[in-house]
């Protein structure tokens, strides 16, 4: 169904790694695990909820939490799980909307304390810890004239983002982020946990699973080796905001743009409320990145000439930066709010505007969002041999966002009802913005789930890694 002898890593003797700065932790020391039944319940609860983005925090309680600072701590956490007959859950950034890291009867390994980030200027390969956020990596690389397609939200940890596939900035040019994973270092969850290196030549099955296997990856990644790229010299933005009554014409225009310009430009349609406007609006936003300023200007000028009338506000061909775009995302996806999220890859032959109309026009709160983006031309080329195997020309994500717990039922029901209609015109969903328990769909292509199960049985025969919350019965039929 689509959804439904090992080599030890040799010690590194290269240049001194760059350690990204981090604010002081609320907890001192990492060698001693924090137990749920320990003497300090406040410390446990702070560790349990640390970095969780969704304020709708579930009542799931790990037995113990290890705040890892290095790979030895990770190994000791695995040994603790073995000794206590517990499973292992993993937290890199805590941004998963379903709070995947919170699992009962488990040792939660919090990787936010791993702070390694080192760029080899000659090869452009960066070694980076999974708890580093997209913004931290982006800022570090920008200072050195490099870039990488990190996630659109700045505080997403690289671990979950990369394992899930990595839908990031400048995707028309750079593709899926996981395509640029060259290797991973990991700690196995076996009875004799080892630190391994996996790439295309050694432990290649783990390397395959690390590029899109998501929570089904049967180990704990402690370091990614990523191929970075020269930073583009020009980044420009244009945008057009319309009243929602113009939805059909405006969405049709967005589809025309993507059909005509397949490179150097990201096209996004956003359904949202704007300050001072009572009804929802539809915004078409364009981000263009290139070393060819004339090429970008030509595209944006052409788009500007063809935009529909009745625009409520507009910006055109403005200089921008990833840092500025991160700030906009932070405002659009506020912290300390409750989230319920779903997504779909809409069929290429669907009437996309009609399929998504209810989502864009019936937002339940002023914070909620509907988002469509074109994956052309990325979606038109074959994917490499890796676990990531699901895409289409049209990606759609739905975000119910609210602040009051009394509205949980209303907002969650709205998402489920909208997605019921969208799902009928969908080929599957993206791992990164999903709760597997919300509905059954396809998360990988044909044969991929079965291959992930085989790799899991080999590298995690005791099923210690908690894996995909909601899909455990498929991976471990006897559990």
From TrEMBL:
Regions that span the bilayer: none
Leader peptide range in chain numbering: none
Annotated region described as Disordered, given as residue ranges: 1-42
Superkingdom of origin: Eukaryota
Keywords tagged on the record: FAD, Flavoprotein, Oxidoreductase
SUPFAM superfamilies per UniProt: FAD-binding/transporter-associated domain-like
Keyword Oxidoreductase: yes
Composition skew (Polar residues), residue ranges: 1-31
Record-linked InterPro entries: FAD-bd_PCMH, FAD-bd_PCMH-like_sf, FAD-bd_PCMH_sub1, FAD-bd_PCMH_sub2, FAD-linked_Oxidoreductase, Oxid_FAD_bind_N, Oxy_OxRdtase_FAD_BS
Domain FAD-binding PCMH-type intervals: 58-231
Names of required cofactors: FAD
Claim: Ubl conjugation is one of the keywords in the record: no
Entries under PANTHER family matching the protein: BINDING OXIDOREDUCTASE, PUTATIVE (AFU_ORTHOLOGUE AFUA_1G17690)-RELATED (PTHR42973), FAD-BINDING PCMH-TYPE DOMAIN-CONTAINING PROTEIN (PTHR42973:SF39)
Family: Belongs to the oxygen-dependent FAD-linked oxidoreductase family.
UniProt protein name: FAD-binding PCMH-type domain-containing protein
Organism from which the protein derives: Aspergillus keveii
Lineage: Eukaryota, Fungi, Dikarya, Ascomycota, Pezizomycotina
């Amino acid at each position: 169904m689509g959804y439904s002898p090992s080599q030890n890593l040799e010690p590194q003797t290269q240049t001194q790694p760059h350690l990204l700065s981090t604010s002081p932790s609320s907890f001192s020391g990492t060698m001693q695990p924090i137990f749920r039944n320990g003497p300090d319940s406040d410390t446990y609860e702070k560790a349990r909820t640390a970095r969780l983005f969704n304020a709708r925090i579930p009542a799931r309680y790990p037995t113990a939490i290890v705040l890892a600072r290095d790979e030895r701590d990770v190994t000791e956490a695995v040994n603790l799980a073995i000794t206590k007959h517990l499973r292992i859950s993993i937290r890199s950034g805590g941004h998963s909307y379903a709070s995947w890291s919170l699992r009962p009867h488990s040792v939660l390994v919090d990787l936010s304390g791993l702070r390694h980030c080192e760029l080899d200027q000659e090869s452009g390969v960066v070694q980076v810890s999974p708890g580093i956020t997209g913004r931290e990596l982006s800022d570090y690389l920008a200072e050195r004239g490099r870039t990488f397609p990190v996630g659109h939200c700045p505080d997403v940890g690289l671990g979950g983002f990369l394992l899930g596939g990595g839908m990031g900035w400048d995707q028309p040019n750079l593709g899926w982020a996981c395509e640029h994973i060259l290797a991973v270092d990991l700690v196995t969850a076996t009875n004799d946990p080892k630190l391994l290196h996996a790439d295309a030549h050694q432990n290649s099955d783990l390397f395959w699973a690390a590029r899109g296997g998501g929570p089904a990856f049967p180990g704990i990644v402690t370091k990614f080796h990523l191929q970075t790229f020269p930073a583009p010299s020009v980044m420009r933005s244009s945008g057009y905001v319309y009243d929602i009554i113009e939805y059909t014409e405006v969405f049709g225009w967005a589809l025309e743009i993507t059909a005509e310009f397949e490179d150097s430009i990201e096209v996004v349609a956003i359904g949202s409320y704007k300050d001072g406007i009572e009804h929802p609006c539809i915004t078409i936003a364009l981000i263009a990145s290139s070393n060819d300023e004339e090429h970008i200007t030509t595209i944006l000028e052409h788009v500007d000439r063809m935009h529909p009338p009745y625009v409520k506000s507009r910006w055109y061909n403005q200089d921008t930066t990833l840092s500025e775009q991160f700030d906009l995302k932070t405002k659009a996806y506020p912290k300390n709010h409750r989230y319920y999220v779903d997504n779909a890859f809409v069929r290429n032959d669907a009437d996309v505007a009609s399929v998504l109309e209810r989502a864009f026009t019936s937002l339940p709160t002023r914070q909620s969002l509907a988002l469509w983006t074109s994956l052309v031309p990325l979606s038109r080329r074959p994917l490499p041999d890796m676990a990531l195997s699901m895409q289409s020309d049209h990606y759609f994500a739905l975000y119910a966002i609210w602040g009051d717990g009394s509205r949980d039922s209303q907002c969650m029901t709205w998402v489920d009802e909208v997605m019921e209609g969208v799902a009928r015109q969908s080929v599957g969903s993206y791992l990164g913005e999903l709760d597997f328990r919300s509905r059954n769909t396809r998360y990988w292509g044909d044969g991929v789930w079965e291959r992930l199960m085989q790799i899991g049985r080999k590298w995690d025969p005791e099923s210690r890694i908690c894996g995909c919350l909601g899909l455990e019965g498929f991976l471990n039929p006897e559990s």
